[in-house]
Amino acid sequence: MMSIVAVVGRPNVGKSTFFNRLIQRREAIVDAVSGVTRDRHYGKSDWNGKEFSLIDTGGYVKGSDDIFEAEIDKQVELAIDEADAIIFMVDVESGVTGMDQEVAKLLRRSKKPIFLAINKVDAASRVNDALEFYSLGFENQYNLSSINGSGTGELLDDLVKALPDREEPDDSELPRFAVVGRPNAGKSSFINALIGKDRYIVTDIAGTTRDSIDTKYDRFGFEFNLVDTAGIRKKSKVKEDLEFYSVMRSVRAIEHCDVIILVFDATRGFDGQVENIFWLAQRNNKGIVILANKWDLVEDKESSSVKDYEKYIRQQCEPFVDVPIVFVSVLTKQRIYKAIETAVEVYQNRSKKVKTSELNEVMLPIIQNYPPPAYKAKYVKIKFCTQLPTPYPSFAFFCNLPQYVKDPYKRFIENKLRENFDFSGVPITVYFRKK
Question: What is residue 92's DSSP assignment?
Fold first, then answer.
């Protein structure tokens, strides 16, 4: 299970730019207007071979200063509670502000490793200006520029050293299916409907993911661990942000499951927060099944037919569209067992091993008919392919000039693999290597 790193701080200090640089994708919206990061953003990053989950907690201002103080307190408290380490970002241009001092006050109470990142130190003249931030009382202080990346290496070197070494849970015997999604999407109801009144539970095991329960499910010929990420919070935690915890539990559950069952409210739509969870699972190479719950409550089914709604979901998931979508009603138990059958099929697809001889017999003629485009009058010749021994489908294609194979051709190869071998619901990784 990967560690979690939270990026906190007041608005307009460059948190989202820093976040985007670390995950190497432009996911968080970057703008000079306070309040653009209204949702938290989640991603996966690695440094020196150590992977970790990264959360941009946002820091948008709404209303008066008093309301802001309550909001920033809540954001930082949530980050302290769930994260293994915290990057506290400040802005050298504005110096130490009252808001920075408020955040620092909360962080000093925690026992979590704190890394003070002084942003926008992109010139030697600003190094002396950064010295005033020692007044915040943090030993780990780093000058950097989130725009050009300077200074981030030293910060990340020390950060990964401070992250705990986590042992992977011993769950090789049974598949792990994690039920994830936004609050009130029907996750708990889905699990309760599966378990039934007689509660077909062999054993309850306290999960390695905080606030999740692994339930061994054995019914209708299916046997697997069902991970409930709905979470049971202590009464003292009720006041906390359920949306934040829902996704945090999803992050942890996704990292060490085989298949995620992504439940969303069909009346609410496949929105940005659901997409965040979907792409996090995709980047972690997990099997994915999408459940459109509460389909019975969608009123205008003539203008919102299953076919049209499914098309809409796939558009949101592009380019990874080979994902099974099941329309269910947990309340009436409509198609909930179909959802489990589909999840088992996706697990089998993720575990599938294609013989090297069969793979070459199918793929080499396709490559011969549709070779990679020539680049600078140089032709790529692919001679051999094989599936790699990874827990998820990944393939190596050996050729003379792998550096000239571009992303469009990689997607072409992936699509042909999907056409000839059933990998529905599973991300595929394709590598081109020097023969």
Answer: T
Q: Supply the angle between the helices 336-351 and 187-195 in degrees, to the nearest 10.
A: 100
How far, in Å, are 156, 342, 355 from residue 306 at the CA level? Answer: 46, 17, 37
- Tokens matching residue 17: 């730019």
Angle at 321 between CA 256 and CA 317, to 5 degrees: 75
Mean pLDDT by groups of 10 residues along the chain of 435 residues: 80 78 53 38 78 70 48 65 88 89 85 91 88 92 89 91 71 78 81 62 34 67 76 39 59 83 89 84 92 82 74 90 92 88 94 95 94 88 93 94 92 94 94 89
Integer angstrom CA distances of residue 377 from 372, 373, 380, 404, 412: 12, 9, 10, 11, 21
pTM over 0.85: no
> In the Cβ-directed half-sphere of 27, how many Cα atoms lie within 13 Å?
24
The per-residue DSSP string of 169-208 comes to: P---SS-EEEEE-STTSSHHHHHHHHHTTTT-EEEEEE-S
Can you tell me the distance from the alpha carbon of 20 to that of 32, in angstroms, rounded to the nearest whole number?
Answer: 15
Tell me the residue type at 68: F
Q: Give the residue from 368, 175, 192 showing the smallest Cα distance to 263.
A: 192
- Which residues are 206's β-sheet partners? 213
Q: Which residues contact 107 (CB under 8 A, 6 or more apart)?
A: 8, 76, 80, 86, 88, 114, 138
